[in-house]
Amino acid sequence: MAAVACALAVGGTVASGAAARPAPAPVPVAQHVSVQPAAAPAAPLQDPQPLPADTPAAGVVPTRLLIPDIGVDAALPPLSLDENRVLLPPGDLDTAGWYTGSAVPGAVGPAILAGHVDDTETAGVFARLHELQPGASITVQLSDGTSRQYRMDRSEDVAKAEFPTEQVYGPTPNSQLRIITCNGPYDFDAMHYRNNLVVFAVPVE
Amino acid sequence: MPRRSLPFTLALALALVPAAVAVSPAAAADAPGYIRVAHLSPDTAAADISLSALSGGTTLYELTDVPYGGVSKYMTLTPGTYALAMAPSVAGTNTPVVNADIEVASGKAVTIAAVGPNASINIKTIEDDLTAPAAGTSRARVVQASTTQNSISVKTAAGVQLASNAAFGDVGSYADVAPGATTVTLTTSSGDTPADVDFADGAAQTLFVVDKASGGLTVVSVLDSSTVTETPVGGMSTGGGALAIAARSGEQTLAGGVLLAVLALALTLAGLRGRRAETARRA
């Protein structure tokens, strides 16, 4: 039996320059590895072929949000930040919105959707968001006619003053959704809700 | 090529180093881990790759016909140990049968790559970046997976050195790069090879340097993670209070109703007592 050489140390080619960061520490992820080489003869080198990706093409944007469990079927106009970098809600009570600085649903990263729970007189698009349960189906339609499926993972009712920025906007290794609205307790003097409700959703695979 | 009838088993002894990644307790409670697989053995045929629960053997993910150069999306897994299996997509081809136990750690993203020439193919585990780049930047690193060159340097058009004389299997550190489409130059003793890349704003990516059929080099670029391009400050105002006001006025109506009932009862009792008093006085 010929020995199969395996050099598995996670080596470090040091990237130079001030911007270089230390390599992440290795973790013990693969154990009891067995490699049983094939009997077939060696083949010539091949050209690498990337796997087909279902990432939306450049310029594709989300257009509609569907959450059947709570009767949401809403448009997703673009949302932006104000001069203080605060995310502006949609102008319309009945539409949700997509933050243009976040991922397009289907692309790697968190896609940030937001909408009103109410205004001073009427219930808004996310009036029933607090009723949504983990596992609930969420669909985002895109401008290219395709759609992406998600399921609710969890929700968090957070004080606006202690908004979990890293959890909501931080990096993700796959396509995820964050759906943000307001939540009680309502401050009758300041006339705003003290909390934000954030629904976290993960792709259906 | 000699026939090898016995499986060659090896154990990986990689030290566990706790990562200094701040994760809020709420997210850390049952945060999943992420695994992706990569086929980077240039003379090995396509593979079927599956991830199964160690107990019970339920197949959780199954990838079929992963060609050389194929890097999967991340598969989301509850922390724990899983069985990874790789097998030929087409019987009789030279894809080896590989089995490994994969430990998935909460909040970690890892690439499991089949690397090396077919005759000495092995499994390499690489931890990927899940931390946010500074605002307005991108982050990139090089994994040297070429089986034909053992010393490769990689530099971006803007002059950021991503690898210096990297040997086969070397994993570079992430470096900050300017977002946008650009060219990297792969330098070996036999010359320079340009490769087009597109660094995504707010993202971390890995450039796998791999062999081409011609014997030359190229880059397979994949996203490791991505965040928003500009992080909003704080929460947002998405309520005017109608529902809260309605809820409170409902409470007031209810409270008012109770008050009226109590008042009515009190008046009735007072009336009764009054009548009794009158009666008594009359008596």
TrEMBL record, chain A:
Q: Which Pfam families match?
A: Sortase
What the entry lists under InterPro entries is as follows: Sortase (IPR005754), Sortase_dom-sf (IPR023365), Sortase_F (IPR042001)
Is Magnesium tagged as a keyword?
Answer: no
Keyword line: Hydrolase, Signal
Q: Where does the signal peptide begin and end?
A: 1-20
This protein's superkingdom? Bacteria
Protein name as catalogued: Class F sortase
UniProtKB/TrEMBL annotation, chain B:
Instruction: Determine if Membrane is one of this entry's keywords.
Output: yes
Q: Does the keyword Transmembrane apply?
A: yes
UniProt keywords (A-Z) are: Membrane, Signal, Transmembrane, Transmembrane helix
- Residues in domain DUF4397? 34-154
UniProt-listed InterPro entries: DUF4397
Give the signal peptide as a residue range, or say none if absent: 1-28
Q: Membrane-spanning regions, if any?
A: 254-272
Matching Pfam families, A to Z? Answer: DUF4397
> What is the protein's name according to its record?
Cell wall anchor
Origin organism is: Naasia aerilata
